[in-house]
Write a structure and sequence with these properties.
Elements lengths: L1 E14 L9 E15 L2 E13 L4 E14 L6 H27 L2 E8 L1
Parallel strand pairs: 2-5
Antiparallel strand pairs: 1-4, 2-3, 3-4
Length: about 120
């Protein structure tokens, strides 16, 4: 499998205006959804990562990020296998750059949970 193209087409974080600029301990709860389309030997995978950021007693932000990836492969793979591999990679990529977005909002995440 060769990744031909990968784009983060949507990047949104909605933060409660009352907490902007405060450093808070919070948890990040993520869910992942997606779609796989195949044309000949090209797979087009859409991965949507969404969730919320919570403190002990309240939700302080919502987030939604969407990635579109094109893969080329000569082997016959199931769409489920392709999506599992790509979504895992994209969640890891997302978690690596998410702190930059959170720091700008003054939020410090101490834990990350996600479902595939």
């Amino acid at each position: 499998m060769v990744e031909k193209k990968s784009l983060w087409v949507l990047q949104e974080i909605f933060v409660d205006p009352g907490i902007v600029g405060k450093n808070l301990d919070c948890d990040l709860n993520l869910k992942v959804m997606g779609d796989v389309r195949k044309e000949k030997n090209i797979f087009k995978i859409t991965t949507e990562i969404f969730g919320s950021i919570t403190t002990k007693d309240e939700q302080i932000a919502n987030l939604r990020f969407v990635n579109i990836t094109e893969l080329e492969t000569n082997k016959n793979h199931s769409t489920k296998t392709i999506f599992r591999k790509v979504s895992k990679k994209k969640v890891e990529e997302f978690v690596s750059f998410l702190p930059l977005y959170l720091i700008k909002a003054g939020i410090t995440a101490k834990g990350i949970e996600y479902e595939l």
